[in-house]
Amino acid sequence: MAKEKKKITQELGVNDQTPREIVAELDKYIVGQDEAKKSVAIALRNRWRSHKLPDEMRDDVIPKNILMIGSTGVGKTEIARRLARLVKAPFIKVEATKFTEVGYVGRDVESIIRDLAQTAVRMVRKQRTEEVKEKAAANAIERLLDVLVPEPKRSQNPLGKLFGNAEVDAPPPEEEDTSKKHGREFIRKRLLAGKMEEQVIELEVADHAKPMVGMFSGSSLEGMGDNLQDMVSSLMPKRMRKRKVTVATARKILEQEEAEKLIDMEEVSETAVELAERSGIVFLDEIDKVAVKGSSSGPDVSREGVQRDILPIVEGSTVMTKYGPVKTDYILFIAAGAFHTAKPSDLIPELQGRFPIRVELKSLLKADFEKILTEPQNALLKQYKALLQTEGLELEFQADAIEHIAELAEHVNEQSEDIGARRLHTLLEKLLEQISFEAPDMVKDGKTEVVIDAAYVDERLKDIAKNKDLSQFIL
Questions:
Q1: Confidence band, pLDDT 50/70/90 cuts, at residue 10
Q2: What pTM does this model have?
Q3: Phi and psi based region of residue 88 (left: phi greater than 0; alpha: psi -120 to 50; beta: remaining)
């Protein structure tokens, strides 16, 4: 079992791609920021290397945490998120501003690790469900047959109970079994052929109580609410209720129930805790907002308190979760912030020392915006084209239009707040507002293609982009 658990953990949490291959994968979704991609790729590869070390040395090798410095919208969060997907690692993104030191309104910082453990459990549980999928489907069919072909009711004589002979006219057991068997086989064939999917049946299902949202939230006892709820639900017997559903829906419900019976949740919890400990990635956003600039008092005392509360988790401690204790020594922390008003040196020295790798992400320029619009697999222009294709309208962007949009994005970011690639969302929404509104009518009138050129971009956006006061409100 331990060997299998180790195998699953490695399969889920660590991949064997080289740093160059990792960067190439990130390039499919994120434009530029080569230095940041290189840093996270090395951190990921070092994790793979540490798994290859002898046990006595592996425990001494801790991940080197990363601090990303750059404006909003330049790709900090996207790099971390894509990285986590790449390695199938438990990943959680949290804003440092959510947390405050004990005694102030806010969340307890240990909830970061509890949420990470929850994410790991979901991942392992999903994998285990896939492993037992076929068996669960077969068991679900049997339960469906029990509903569709119930036990035959024996006819009763009203006076039979008085004389101790309740059952009369009952067929012989052999004949009854044969009839029932033929009936089940007939229905089974129809089920497997998909001929009964829309038939409505009455199904008895477990009535899951709704979670008590917010119980103990905003205090250091925040995790107690979940534990108390789990304890109460385990003591109470399951309440059943009847639902009228189609066979297709019933099959899904029963497959899920059967899969839960086949999965060993204790083993899932153990594996998930190990996965979170060895492969977890925590993305701490807005870290600059809790940095204290100079010596001050008032609310800034709370900000420093947040840093001091975050410190033990980053440097290595044990957090109690409902799945067991989770050690944070080997979790990779990636912190990020714009650092417009504060500097990394404004963080408390102990926390600075826990983020040895510093990466500065550059502001996006016109050439970057052009690439963002066209190159990534989920490029914005591809998304808008696909959306309008659903109406039957073909959208085509000429090269000069793309260039002009990129130029405007750079210009507006320079003139007002620099929000990076998010500026493209506001520009494109404004640019295509009229087309999106009129698309169904255009198709009805026989127009199936729209070409966007530089002149159209000028017509829709020129005045807004040039008028600084207007662009601040609209773009």
A1: very low
A2: 0.76
A3: left
